[in-house]
Amino acid sequence: MGSITFYRVHLDRGMNAVRVMEEESEGLDEIAQALLDPITGNFTEDAGSALPYVGSSLLAMDKVTLDEPWRGHGLGAILVTEAIHRLMVGCRVIACSPGVTDLSSDRLRNRTEWDRATAKIARGRELVGFRQYQGNVYLLSPASLELEEQRGAMRGRLADLGLVWRRTQAHDISPRPGGG
To answer: How many separate domains does the chain show?
Structure first.
């Protein structure tokens, strides 16, 4: 079906998070460059003043992948919303850098298709409540009322998807050969 990869970055444990994040992935490096001071490894003054204090950690969403049959139904945004609610306790912010990580499709070698896919991924993050902060880095506050509202909307979408799936399954029933 797919996977979601999050990293909880503890900024109060003495290690410089910037160095660790830049070694882990390009997306995490992009988040670190936008939010963290390279010398201290803590939030920059700009980022710190823009974020309500509800915790000291950074929750970074690195990758969301869905197998091809599951794509295009809004399921990624639904799953991300539920995962964030379970992981956000103690975090000051949730961050992501949306982009295409599955390069197996030949159609994404065309720049227009690449841009279209990346924009669609960013729209999915915005459905969850992420807002563009700097460059391709999007932030979501755990204290946001919109986050809870979006969770309700996402659960409604999941229920709708379930109904559609059940209807298609009911139409796909066919008699088995041999009468059984």
So the answer is: 1
